[in-house]
Design a protein that fits this description.
Organism: marine gamma proteobacterium HTCC2143
InterPro entries: DUF3108
Distance between the termini: 6 Å
Number of helices: 2
Number of strands: 16
Pfam families: DUF3108
Protein name: DUF3108 domain-containing protein
CATH class: Mainly Beta
CATH topology: YmcC-like fold
Strand content: over 45%
Structural class: mainly beta
Length: about 250
């Protein structure tokens, strides 16, 4: 059963909500947790395991100035760390990326430092190119994409079917189609949630990604699974979540 511990003051990321959160908590705390604005600050911890190696990811979203947000991932695998962060602005349910950085301690070739110039309509990865790309309408980085997907699911109000997203990956664009597969009830380390199951796929590629989001938590991400050629792949699962200083927990 889900409960809310109001003594916590941490903020949290994409989250997974339980059924009883709606009935037991929303009546008294909805004005605090789920205002009519998006996004809201949060902190979350995700975990995964692959090839016998465990990894943990801390994700946080915070507002830096009115209308501007900072989304960050910090990943620890054994003694190696990776970090990813994005700065983007919001207007309604539209995310406009400004900066994206990915630091890979093991391979600088995989690192990235994207700057979006929305006035000149260009974007450049300073680590991999000296020539900017023309900025396509609606183009996103890998993190602002997550926020935009949540916003689109909220805006669709249950009627989301499919949408095409354009992502900048270092020196090129990648086009992904995200479509809804089904409504599901998902069991997680935080409890059971009413969720939406999505598929993210790139044309011509065998590999794709499955995404589960929690309806009652503004479609915060509960689980991500990368599906390989053999039809299986590692999962990333939410382990803990705090929204607007309120911790969601299972007891």
């Amino acid at each position: 059963m889900a409960s809310v511990n109001t003594t916590q003051t941490h903020l949290i990321p994409s989250a997974f909500t339980q059924k009883l959160l709606l009935s037991a908590v929303i009546l008294t705390c909805q004005s605090q947790l789920f205002a009519d604005i998006f996004p809201v600050p949060y902190q979350a911890v995700y975990s995964t395991s692959f090839s016998g190696i465990s990894a943990k990811m801390n994700q946080s979203l915070e507002q830096t100035t009115p209308g501007q947000w900072h989304l960050q991932n910090d990943v620890s695998i054994a003694f190696v760390g990776f970090s990813e962060e994005a700065i983007f602005s919001t207007e309604g349910h539209v995310m406009t990326p400004q900066r994206y950085q990915y630091k890979n301690a093991m391979s600088n070739k995989r690192s990235s430092d994207l700057s979006f110039n929305n006035e000149q309509r260009t974007v450049i990865d300073s680590l991999h190119s000296i020539e900017p790309l023309p900025l396509r309408e609606g183009a996103l980085d890998k993190l602002s994409f997550q926020a935009q997907l949540r916003a689109d699911l909220i805006s669709a109000d249950g009627d989301f079917i499919e949408k095409i997203y354009t992502l900048v990956d270092r020196t090129k664009y990648k086009i992904y189609t995200v479509k809804k597969l089904s409504d599901v009830v998902l069991e997680t380390p935080l409890g059971t949630f009413d969720a939406v199951k999505l598929e993210q796929r790139r044309s011509g590629k065998d590999r794709y990604t499955l995404i589960w989001t929690a309806k009652e938590l503004d479609h915060m991400i509960l689980r991500i699974q990368r599906i390989d050629k053999d039809g299986d792949g590692p999962e990333v699962n939410l382990q803990s979540l705090t929204i607007n200083g309120t911790k969601i927990s299972d007891k």
